[in-house]
Amino acid sequence: MSDHSNINDQTGTSTKPLFFKVVSFLSTLSGWCSAGMTLIAIAITCQMIFVRFVLNGSTVWQTEAVVFLIVAATLIGLPFVQQLRGHVNVNLIPLMLPAKGRYFLAIFTYSVAIITISMMLWFSYEFWHLAFTRGWTSDTVWAPQLWIVYSSLPIGFGLLILQLLADLAAIVLKIELPFGLGED
């Protein structure tokens, strides 16, 4: 749900239902967390380069931590990107359709996306739970608990589903225009 999607009440002031406010807050928070993880990964990479090439030392945990942080940043940042419509968008088919066709296409695409991400959430939760209950660790000297690392899967997909549901509701409730496109 983008920033321009407000409902006008009888007084003419702009308000958003609580669900939209909560989802917007969570998506924005996920974006900040994602940015923070990326900055931490950059700092660790700089430290790793310094240790390897200036101090001529070895690194134990840095490479694995950077990989885990960037993957987590990508997954946890999904709802923020969806909120801002920051992904690559091709509007060729919606541009060719009349307004009513765009409306139904938007409902269809959001529904398919929600179903697909729900399946990914289900299997990622199972994977996380398996790592948690069995106490899996990585096969490195550092050996971090993998349930911590894998938690970014259900968190990211769960928050993305909330954002997709908010986007779908905004279309159905006519708060937003399908694909951000006006009438013909």
List keywords for this structure.
mainly alpha, disordered N terminus, two-stranded antiparallel ribbon, 2 strands, 184 residues, elongated
Describe the structure.
This protein has helices spanning 18-54, 62-76, 78-84, 92-96, 99-134, 146-150, 152-172; strands at residues 7-8, 14-15. By secondary structure, it is mainly α. The protein has one domain. Helix 1 packs antiparallel against helix 2 (62-76) and helix 1 (18-54) packs across helix 3. The chain starts with 6 loop residues before the first strand and ends in a 12-residue tail after the last helix. The model is unreliable at 1-13 (pLDDT under 50).
Question: What is the strand and helix layout of this fold?
Answer:
Layout: E1 7-8, E2 14-15, H1 18-54, H2 62-76, H3 78-84, H4 92-96, H5 99-134, H6 146-150, H7 152-172
Antiparallel strand pairs: 1-2
Helix pairs in contact: 1-2, 1-3, 1-7, 2-7, 3-7, 5-7
In short:
The chain is mainly alpha-helical and 184 residues long.
Number of strands: 2
Poorly predicted parts: 1-13
Question: In the residues, how many domains can be counted?
Answer: 1
Query: Level of helix content?
Result: 55-70%
Which strand order spans the largest sheet, edge to edge or round the barrel?
1-2
Principal-axes shape call: elongated
- The N- to C-terminal Cα distance equals 22 Å
- Biggest sheet character: 2 strands, antiparallel
> H/E series, N to C?
EEHHHHHHH
Mean pLDDT equals 89
Please, how many helices?
Answer: 7
Instruction: Give the structural class.
Output: mainly alpha
Beta percentage is: under 5%
Rg estimate, integer Å: 21 Å
